[in-house]
Amino acid sequence: MTRTSTCIYHFFVLSWYIFLNFYISQQGEDPRKSTVFLNGGQWKYLTFLNLLLQALFYGVACLEDVLKRAKGKKDIKFITAFRDLLFTTLAFPISAFVFLSFWILFLYDRELVYPKALDGIFPVWLNHAMHTSILPFSLAEVILRPHCYPLKKKGLTLLAVASLAYVSRVLWIYSETGTWVYPVFAKLSPVGLAAFFSLSYIFSVGIYLFGEKLNHWKWGDRMQPRKKRK
Fold first, then answer.
1. CB 3.0-4.6 Å disulfide test: which of 38, 47, 122, 155 passes with 150?
2. Domain ranges of the chain
3. Where are the transmembrane segments (predicted)?
């Protein structure tokens, strides 16, 4: 894909995520839908945090596209490095995690993650926009643009920090309100919760490593992390 086409694609996806974030932000004004956002607001859900994250990433990608055309590659190394770090450690792993974890639980027992009652509140297209289209967009980004992965220690540390921050927020909301963000958590014992969160992080690490392998398969050794010289 040419540089212009990639720029147009990034702008299209950015516009889509901006629209989704704006649309969802307006749903709190509906009395029926506002109940979903009680005890923590919309940002208690990883799904909505992911939509904001994707909008941020594609915003950076669009900025990098524009600056690259205006200034050239040498003057925007920081923006390019930040774009790659954001995508490899957060945007790709989290979008894939949301897609896979949601649909696995949904197909097993939808009441654990997206109760049937929500069908009368949120339209079907919005459910797929939040939980289905996110992965194809991320996979397309891998195919269309090479991304330089950081050293594994750095990448997995950032992913661990993000995971710990979200788990801490989930636990804090429960301690303050007595309600769990997702119904599945209410079904688990303290030991079960610890195992669930641990397995979720291991799962996200697997996704991270898969993304790195996929990037290497498409773009080769030139996009592998650079080791520091001793």
1. 155
2. 4-223
3. 7-25, 45-64, 85-105, 125-144, 156-174, 194-211
